[in-house]
Amino acid sequence: MKIHEKYILRCIELAKNGLGTAAPNPMVGCVITVDDQIIGEGFTSPYGGPHAEVNAIHAVSDKKQLKKATLYVSLEPCSHYGKTPPCADLIISHGIPRVVIGLRDPHDKVDGKGIEKLLAAGVEVTCPVLEMECREDHRRFLTFQEKGRPYVLLKWAESADGYIAPKSDIREKEPKPYWITNRYSRQMVHQWRTEEQAILVGTTTAMMDNPELTPRTWVGKAPLRVVIDRKLKIPGNYHIYDNKAKTLILTEEGPGPETTPGVEYSTLDFSENLPKQICNRLYDRQVQSVIVEGGAKTLKSFIEAGLWDEARIFKGPGSLGSGLKAPAIKGKELSREQIGNDLLRILRND
């Protein structure tokens, strides 16, 4: 393996520590070496905190070594003032002579300007390195920047015979989640919730399951709860109004006469392309990723609109015999994994 690739891979590995906390900043990893020895590492702090380059430079105990160091970073250093000063300026101020960049940043405030600033200061810049691997790592950020919408993940669980829920009369006896998968799979879903910025469900799922949509069995930040409720039918005592996480209600009615703390309303035109409108609303809120967890109608609408990037599908071992059929979807299968007696398939929209 080439030396540059070795350390960019390490940057990608470090960057994953920022998943779920760095957004809307990209999760970036940074490694600083001297004579093929790592002297500092860092990744993007939670939003508003230092970037990866800053954390890596601060981790170097003997700052004099920086004048002969090579700095590796998975995404182009920023060149503008935002929540923090430009990373390119910090690199230059420490006299770091070489910078190796995995991927150019497409953000309009960066987009090559960081590289230009480094070159103008006499820094030797190598870019790109492992571009495709870095694009994969930054896929949420890049989808947001390049497509003007959040990265959309679809998630559902289906029975061995292809149903995602039993017949409605069975479920109506007691509104609660009907579990198809085991507790390990369900805990994995709670982990995923901490990694993304929003979670979306439709009216029927909210009414039938009364879900909390929070990461109760995993430590991490709760995502924005996004609930489609065209006619504002969901009772006010349901979990989505419990103030355990911020909630966005998508409706055609507008907010009711009384508002609930932590709950916002956004009006949509339900006669138009609903998935596209939802993506636009989330983009406006700087939401870079959303998990669509159901129900079948909502999932199907995103599939038919082609507005999905990744699908995570659990198949449980039991059969229901009848009920609500799982959505039909086609995509490139990335992986298959056994989670106890459940099968998890991950597809990418190719």
Automatic annotation (TrEMBL):
Zinc in keyword set: yes
Database matches in InterPro entries: APOBEC/CMP_deaminase_Zn-bd (IPR016192), CMP_dCMP_dom (IPR002125), Cytidine_deaminase-like (IPR016193), DHFR-like_dom_sf (IPR024072), Eubact_RibD (IPR004794), RibDG_C (IPR002734), Riboflavin_Biosynth_HTPR (IPR050765)
Cofactor(s) in the UniProt record: Zn(2+)
Xref: Pfam families: dCMP_cyt_deam_1, RibD_C
Secretion signal, residue range per the UniProt entry: none
Record field: transmembrane: none
Catalytic activity: 2,5-diamino-6-hydroxy-4-(5-phosphoribosylamino)-pyrimidine + H2O + H(+) = 5-amino-6-(5-phospho-D-ribosylamino)uracil + NH4(+); 5-amino-6-(5-phospho-D-ribitylamino)uracil + NADP(+) = 5-amino-6-(5-phospho-D-ribosylamino)uracil + NADPH + H(+)
Cofactor note: Binds 1 zinc ion.
Pathway, per record: Cofactor biosynthesis; riboflavin biosynthesis; 5-amino-6-(D-ribitylamino)uracil from GTP: step 2/4; Cofactor biosynthesis; riboflavin biosynthesis; 5-amino-6-(D-ribitylamino)uracil from GTP: step 3/4
Keywords: Hydrolase, Metal-binding, Multifunctional enzyme, NADP, Oxidoreductase, Riboflavin biosynthesis, Zinc
Residue span, CMP/dCMP-type deaminase domain: 2-126
Described function: Converts 2,5-diamino-6-(ribosylamino)-4(3h)-pyrimidinone 5'-phosphate into 5-amino-6-(ribosylamino)-2,4(1h,3h)-pyrimidinedione 5'-phosphate.
Entry's family note: In the N-terminal section; belongs to the cytidine and deoxycytidylate deaminase family.
Entries under NCBIfam families matching the protein: eubact_ribD
Name this polypeptide is given: Riboflavin biosynthesis protein RibD
Protein's organism: Muriicola marianensis
